[in-house]
Specification:
Helix content: 10-25%
Strand content: over 45%
Largest sheet: 8 strands, antiparallel, barrel
Length: about 190
């Protein structure tokens, strides 16, 4: 009897625990955008248009590992050519010296069936700081056309202080806010 119970328990554990799968960000359906205060009047919107990333995830167990995302800092777009040039220079992103923004994490913490947090290391201007993303899993399903792979739909938010990364232009005189609100919307495709 104990042998049968042990066998059933082992079989159930194997069934309940799916393997970790690798997912890559679908860059055509991924948006990283931010807002930042402009002289106290309103928040200015910016987006990054060139990025790549992947992670391992077990949908059933809500286990996450090996998160790595790279953003081309020069791909910033604030919908104004003059402002884009300024944001790319040494006052802000200094893209000639620091061409990449990276985020790396080793795991996450579920807070509900479709919510959780991911804490990892964000590097901007060569300075690395811990950042926590609030994550919502919107949908898990096979894509209805095209590649037909399993896709995770994710929404993420966080807030950082740019001064934590040494980006202090306009902070003391209130011309540009210190707080940056970041939003990420992505579809991540299961790799074959």
């Amino acid at each position: 009897m104990p042998l049968i119970a042990a066998t059933l328990t082992a079989a159930f554990a194997t069934t309940a625990h799916a393997d970790m799968a690798r997912y890559e960000l679908d860059t055509e359906h991924t948006n990283v955008y931010f807002t930042i205060e402009h002289i106290g009047y309103a928040r200015t919107l910016g987006i990054f248009t060139d990025l790549s990333g992947a992670f391992d995830y077990d949908v059933d167990m809500q286990e996450l590992s090996d998160v790595a995302v790279t953003i081309d800092a020069s791909s910033v777009n604030t919908f104004n050519d003059a402002r884009d040039g300024h944001v790319r220079n040494k006052d802000f992103l200094h893209v000639s010296a620091h061409p990449a923004i990276t985020f790396v994490a080793s795991g996450g913490t579920p807070t509900g069936d479709t919510t959780g947090t991911v804490t990892g290391d964000l590097t901007i201007l060569g300075v690395t700081r811990p950042v926590t993303l609030d994550v919502t899993l919107n949908k898990v399903a096979d894509y209805p056309f095209g590649h037909k792979r399993e896709v995770l739909g994710l929404s993420m938010t966080t807030t950082i202080l740019r001064s934590d990364f040494g980006m202090t232009y306009g902070v003391d005189n209130g011309l540009v806010g210190d707080e940056v609100r970041i939003n990420i919307e992505t579809e991540a495709m299961k790799m074959e």
